[in-house]
Design brief:
The chain is mainly α. It has 2 helices and no strands.
């Protein structure tokens, strides 16, 4: 019985094994697409801070070291 399965996985965590590997299977097709804003929002990607991430981390570490030095100087 013929069937069509459409697997829409915005995270890309799904896997479909070809039974004809390593040869191509003309019954399987793969389509890459850009996630929509709504899909990114559902995954929490829209709220992620990724620009200057490493710089912010280094600044926070520097501030923590300064705080520790001040505390040890006060005691």
């Amino acid at each position: 019985m013929p069937a069509t399965i459409i697997l829409d996985d915005p995270t890309g965590c799904s896997y479909v094994q070809s039974l004809t590997a390593p040869m191509d299977d003309n019954r399987l097709s793969k389509e890459f697409y850009t996630r929509s804003y709504e899909q990114n929002d559902d995954l929490g990607i829209n709220d992620m801070k990724v620009e200057n991430y490493g710089e912010l981390e280094a600044l926070e570490e520097g501030e923590e070291e300064e705080d520790e030095e001040r505390e040890s100087a006060e005691t």
